[in-house]
Amino acid sequence: MLRNALYLAAAVSAIAAPAAAQAHGEGEQGSSMGPVAFLWPQDRPWSSSEDNKAPCGSVSGPTTRADFPLVGGAVALSIADDAWNVVFRIAYGNNPTTQSAFRTFVPARVDAIEPGHQCYKAPTIANVAEGTNATIQMEYWSNDSGKDESFFACADITLVGATAFSDTIPCFNVTASEFEAPQSTETVIQAAPEQSTSDNGLSTGAKAGIAVGSILGASAIIGVAVFFAFRKRSKPADSESTPYMSQTKGAQSVESVPAAARQ
């Protein structure tokens, strides 16, 4: 119980700063990100004039690179609007500029995603040397101003061995429509009697904001849980369960754990 709580606490702390920097409140979509963006690895700067253009949907080339493990990697998404037919590809080299340079990375297509955050396990990358530069491409479909369109985003990486990878991937799954924040007092319930568990009336940006707010609020609860776990570690641990909230089909979605724990 204690180890799992620590893993989850570390993951929430890891995503808190990036999530705040890349605001998910109303109006964020269309100002600094498209309907979907990479949460990790960091994607190239977004451009509204280019995000429908292959291969990378950006006017910028590689600006930052994240170390990416050859074994036990994952890609994490920040989702501001409904999207479908999500495909991940990879190209090796410093700056791939043609669509033909990319090949399938995550084998299965993700049929549909909704506002929130999702994470997908990457396959083992074989027959590629440590230190190789590469680019992960995400292509997906979403509705922009009443029109279904394909979108592109890219994240630049450097491949490293498992022992050389020391980061914690901010990998967690939560959808805004499924997450129900706990009602701690009667006053809270009475303050919003018209609200229901559905997301009717919420903008897509607001729905994504709810997801982040719920996660950050949960970090305080996790901190208390860790404290009492230390105090009572001699007693039998309560069973834990983490709700599985992925709304996708065909691709494996994973929880956040440090890289070393996934070996």
From TrEMBL:
Region ranges (Disordered): 234-263
Q: Which residues form the signal peptide?
A: 1-21
Q: How does it sit in the membrane?
A: Lipid-anchor; GPI-anchor
* Record-linked Pfam families: BIM1-like_dom
Which keywords does this Swiss-Prot/TrEMBL entry list?
Cell membrane, Glycoprotein, GPI-anchor, Lipoprotein, Membrane, Signal, Transmembrane, Transmembrane helix
Q: Main localisation, per the record?
A: membrane
Q: Which domain of life is it from?
A: Eukaryota
**Record GO cellular component, one term:** side of membrane
Segments of skewed composition (Polar residues): 239-255
Which protein, by its recorded name, is this?
Copper acquisition factor BIM1-like domain-containing protein
Organism field:
Arthrobotrys conoides
